[in-house]
Design brief:
five-stranded mixed sheet; 41% helix; six-stranded mixed sheet
């Protein structure tokens, strides 16, 4: 039943509603574009919390360094003003950190209440650049005195290009903050304990070598250490593991094997799905066997309750495939000796054995201060900004010239990992991830979700790689045709 409120109760209720609305408005407006506060111009840089306190503190440190540099310039210019001339304003950078960033920022874009500078994961670039909120930066870069694209890893800048139709070419819409090549971290103490030879620092293991050595931590564990922790159930025929099982690797990523085997997911023009090729099927066969028969890597069900990083730090996985960004955390948290090596690869193109991740900074197209906002984004890409982040261990420099590489070696000297050269080899050859193939990743997510039929615990219901990929090809193609019909119109 409805209850009639007194005027006093109604007034209190309306006040509460106004407060809630006001709080929501402040929360949204806190990331909006720059504001003039008299003697200062306040710019907002919007960032995620995915990298934890390590990355957040680094971003604030770079922003503070830029603020100091910019305001010093303003002081010098104001000191040279003639009498009666209006003094230039200093700036203040407000760093706004948002949780569930990709989801939340979609709402921010829809509201057009966008901050001056905002982080763009390379996986979201294709979707967000099409909304028209990003300022085109090519002219700024060409006039820049800080940025020399000839010295930047090509994949770091090319993943933020868009020509109005496809990604990877055309104008630049983001300044890259970092490039994070992926490598194989390995627990040297555990390798010693189990009698497993260290991987070579510059040559990837072949798939056969990887399976042999990863198996030695569980499937073919030495008898002196209790023997195998893998067994087959006499009742169900399922392969199971005993307590104390150690995985050879915390997760196997298909891309490293697929690309190095000369295969690919989609054609260059993205109108053909290539997952039914013999080379592609060979990779999925390998991963299925490694996971379900040898148990060298956990299933997705197990990873839903923990993380690869946790398995590695807890000594439950001997190897861990991840990017440079976890190095600073491992230096603090790992209680064992460790190093890095190339990700295992097939022999067709062994250098193309993984991907590099990246985030960049875009400038809001409608910011009232585009020049200053660009300079802030640019500062993260500049040598000065890059060295701040490189020294922390969070990333490698975006620059491939002799001076930047020398700084990387200087900062890494005496610190883990010892194999600094692998970062450089990986950055030179690795691609952007699958999220860069098309502006939407629905096709990629569907392939990953449906691949669960390859890893069912009951072997009688488990699909073969050939069966699954042959059937899945049409499913993926239909998604691409639905999401990107222009690729198929009039010959694409």
């Amino acid at each position: 039943m409805f209850r009639i409120l007194t005027w006093k109760q109604l007034a209190a209720w309306l006040t509460a509603v106004v407060l809630v609305v006001a709080c929501f408005t402040v929360a949204v407006c806190s990331v909006s574009a720059g504001t003039d506060y008299g003697d200062r111009t306040v710019l907002t840089l919007c960032h995620w919390d995915n990298g934890g306190a390590t990355e957040t503190n680094l971003v604030k440190e770079v922003c503070a360094a830029f603020e100091q540099t910019y305001n010093r310039e303003i002081d010098e210019k104001n000191a040279a003003l003639e009498e009666g001339e209006e003094p230039l304003k200093k700036i203040k950078i407000n760093v706004s950190v948002i949780s569930s960033y990709e989801t939340q920022f979609n709402s921010i874009i829809a509201s057009r209440n966008v901050p001056d500078v905002f982080l763009v994961p390379d996986g979201n670039f294709g979707q967000w650049v099409q909304t028209g909120v990003m300022l085109e930066l090519t002219d700024y870069i060409e006039r820049s005195e800080l940025i020399d694209l000839e010295k930047v890893w090509p994949s770091a800048i090319d993943r933020y290009r868009y020509n109005g139709r496809t990604m990877g070419s055309g104008s630049v819409y983001c300044m890259p903050k970092d490039v994070t090549p992926y490598v194989m971290y390995y627990n040297k103490d555990m390798f010693d304990e189990y009698g497993v030879p260290y991987p070579d620092g510059g040559t990837p293991w072949t798939p056969e070598e990887a399976l042999e050595y990863w198996s030695m931590f569980g499937y073919s564990r030495p008898e002196s250490m209790g023997g195998s922790t893998v067994y087959v159930s006499s009742k169900t025929g399922e392969t199971k593991i005993r307590d104390g099982h150690v995985y050879g690797v915390a997760k196997i990523y298909p891309e490293s094997f697929i690309w190095s085997n000369g295969a690919d997911y989609l054609s260059q023009d993205r109108t053909d799905v290539l997952i039914d090729s013999p080379e592609f099927i060979e990779v999925y066969d390998y991963i299925q066997t490694s996971t379900m028969d040898y148990c060298v890597t956990p299933t997705s069900a197990i990873l839903s309750t923990t993380s690869e990083k946790t398995l590695f730090l807890n000594g439950e996985a001997a190897c861990y495939i991840e990017g440079r960004s976890v190095t600073s955390d491992l230096r603090k948290q790992a209680t064992f000796d460790w190093d890095i090596a190339p990700i295992p690869a097939f022999g067709v193109d062994p250098d193309c054995n993984g991907w590099s991740g990246s985030v960049g900074y875009a400038v809001y197209k409608e910011t009232p201060y585009p020049d200053i906002a660009y300079r802030l984004a640019e500062y993260f890409t500049s040598v000065e900004g890059q060295l701040i982040m490189t020294e922390s261990g969070f990333s490698i420099p975006l620059y491939n010239d002799e001076a930047a590489i020398a700084k990387l070696y200087e900062f890494d000297a005496g610190k883990k990992p010892a194999n600094t050269a692998e970062w450089l080899r990986a950055a030179e050859h690795q691609r952007a991830g699958l999220w860069q193939y098309l502006p939407s990743v629905r096709w990629k997510d569907k392939l990953a979700d449906d691949s669960g039929v390859l890893f069912t615990s009951d072997p009688s219901t488990r699909a073969t790689a050939e069966q699954f990929l042959t059937d899945e090809k049409e499913v993926i193609l239909n998604i691409i045709k639905t999401d990107f019909p222009h690729l198929f119109a009039d010959g694409g």
